[in-house]
Amino acid sequence: MAIARRSLLVTAAAALATPAIAQSASVVKFVPGNDLNGLDPIWTTAYVVRNHGYNVYDTLYGTDAQYRTRPQMAQGHEISADQLTWTIRLREGLKFHDNQPVRARDCVASIRRWAARDGLGQLLISMTNELAAPDDQTIVFRMKSPFPMLADALGKLSAPVPFMMPERLATIDPNTRITEAVGSGPLRFLPGEWVQGSRAAYAKFEGYVPRAEPPSGTAGGKRMNVDRVEWHTIPDASTAMAALQKGEVDWLEGAPFDLLPLALKNRDIAVATFGKAGNPAILRFNHLHPPFDTAPMRRALLAAVQQAPYLQASIGNADYYSECKSFFPCGTPMSSGTGNAAMFGDVARAKRMFAEAGYRGQKIVFLAATDSSVLHALSMVTVDLLKKLELNFELVETDWGTLVQRRASQEPVEKGGWSLFHTTAAGAEYMSPAAHLGLRSDGRPSWAGWPTDPRMEELRRAWVFASDAQAQLRIGAEIEQQAFASVPYIPLGEYISPTAYRRSITEVTDAYAPFFWGLRKA
After folding, report:
1. Contact 280, 329 (CB under 8 A)
2. Contact by Cβ (8 Å): 48, 119
3. pLDDT at 7 over 60
4. Do the domain assignments include residue 506?
5. Degrees (nearest 5) of the Cα angle 260, 380, 493?
6. What's the structural domain count of the chain?
7. Where does 208-305 show beta strands of DSSP type E?
8. Structural domain of residue 450, as residue ranges?
9. Cβ atoms of 446 and 403 closer than 8 Å
10. How far is the CA of 314 from the CAs of 235, 291, 499, in angstroms?
11. Which of 120, 149, 170 is the last residue of a domain?
């Protein structure tokens, strides 16, 4: 055990080693929640890749700290009198990291690649008669009928985010991972310094043209006040916290709840939270293969779940979590809890429901991440529950990066597939039925789990085209009712995610994820 611990510390020390750079350069050393295991933020919904994407790429529209959509790469737009034509103009001076100008046709190709992987994007394209670039600065949408959420779609927070890429990358098949990261965002990715399992590095892009206004969320002026950002992978939470306390790193994306007292006692460390909406914890099913390919089987497991044990095990501190039997973050407009009586936490009744649904010992492969304290704790509660339910399951424990790769498999369990996994989400991304990744239910094009529920898709579409806010609230309640009937996943409550950074870091952007523009380092 001592040898393993010594090896871990040596690995961490190696990860913190920085290539020689100018002494006057300002460097922020950041510890992400997971290792960066890929570069394509359209191919995967993994948050670590999405966060990497926000470093490298920019978007036509952004979402500010009050969740309002604002122009970003776009100078603005005009809508025709009949509401069918949107004309979007790009800001002057935008260019990619290879010093090529950003052209409207780059953006058109990027929109199409993103839309192929995103439910809201697919709806947008299905409502579009023509998407064109008549010149280098102009993007034109000609719609089949009015689509008031067009700017919201292009500024959506949730993964996959509609990042703008060079046309040569954006025309790559959306089902093929891009292995090159060239954007027009405030940071350049440094491919020669990327070592999976260890580190990634970014340098300030001197050619970036920020907007004039202050930064807010993913909108506003993304000014880089530091020269370099390094991501250091430190899987062991205690080692990461020790590095923060010693000043070896500047920022931990996720401050472990059990180690928060150490951070709070240190005058040199600030503890903050990401976003205003609670972060949902979820248990996701594979809807393609037995046993959870039928709603009665999924409802049986839903019936057994109590949220409190999950929250107590994974978060521990009641100041940071709350039960929430809803498919939208509690306290947000769409959250009604309609239908949540199906979640009654009765193991004996759930066992009867499994028998009635036809469970006859079909194998369940449960994927559990070991390098996240929250996800691992959630997984151990589920292991205990599966044992109580006397279900035939295999626990596969692995790091998150490997889990993400395996969960992409649509094969049955006997061919390397899976049945269940835990993840968490940013609450801001689950507020809108249109962008809600976990509710999308159009089969294999959906997020991992691939539910098929035509009624859910009908309701989500109706919400987008609802005549007013009251109609949206009514449809939102119907969506929750349907979700508790079809069970795309099991909601396990929500929590506020603490982040910790040294007080030498100031002016951190008020956002729902770690962003590096705007901040300063003393």
Report:
1. yes
2. no
3. no
4. no
5. 65
6. 2
7. 228-232, 251-252, 269-273, 279-285
8. 279-495
9. no
10. 17, 27, 16
11. 170
What is the radius of gyration, based on Cα positions, of the chain?
A: 23
In a domain, 48, yes or no: no
Nearest one of 110, 97, 107, 131 to 40, comparing CA atoms = 110
pLDDT, tens digit (0-9, with 9 covering 90-100), for 461-493: 999 888 888 999 999 999 999 999 999 999 999
Burial of 144 from C-beta contacts in 10 A (0-12 / 13-18 / 19+) = exposed
Q: Which amino acid is at 503?
A: R
Phi-psi group of 275: left, alpha or beta (phi > 0 → left; psi -120 to 50 → alpha; rest → beta):
left
Contact, 194 vs 488, CB < 8 A? no
Sequence-separated (6 or more) residues with CB below 8 Å from residue 307: 323, 324, 325, 491, 492, 493
Strand boundaries in 46-95, DSSP class E: 61-63, 69-71, 74-79, 85-90
Would the pTM count as exceeding 0.85? Answer: no
Residue 307 included in any domain = yes
Helix, strand and coil in the chain, % to nearest 5? 30, 20, 45
> Do 285 and 416 belong to one domain?
yes
**What per-residue string of b and e applies to 196-208 under the rule 16 or more CB within 10 Å gives b?**
eebbbbbbbbeeb
| Contact call for residues 220 and 468 (beta carbons, < 8 A) | no
End-to-end CA distance of the chain: 39
Maximum Cα interatomic distance, the chain, rounded to a whole number of Å: 72
Nearest by Cα to 334 from 422, 433, 406: 433
Of the three residues 170, 194, 223, the one that is the final residue of a domain is 170
pLDDT tens digits for 207-243?
A: 999 999 999 999 999 999 999 999 999 988 899 999 9
- Residues in contact with 51: Cβ distance below 8 Å, sequence separation at least 6, in sequence order: 32, 513, 514
324-354 pLDDT, tens digit per residue, is 999 999 988 899 999 999 999 999 999 999 9
Beta partners for 62?
70
User: Which of these, 289, 281, 259, 279, lies nearest to 271 by C-alpha position?
Assistant: 259
Count of positions (residues) in the chain: 522
Lowest mean pLDDT among 25-39, 210-224, 498-512: 498-512
Percent over 90 (pLDDT), the chain: 79
Task: Judge whether 213 lies within some domain.
Answer: no
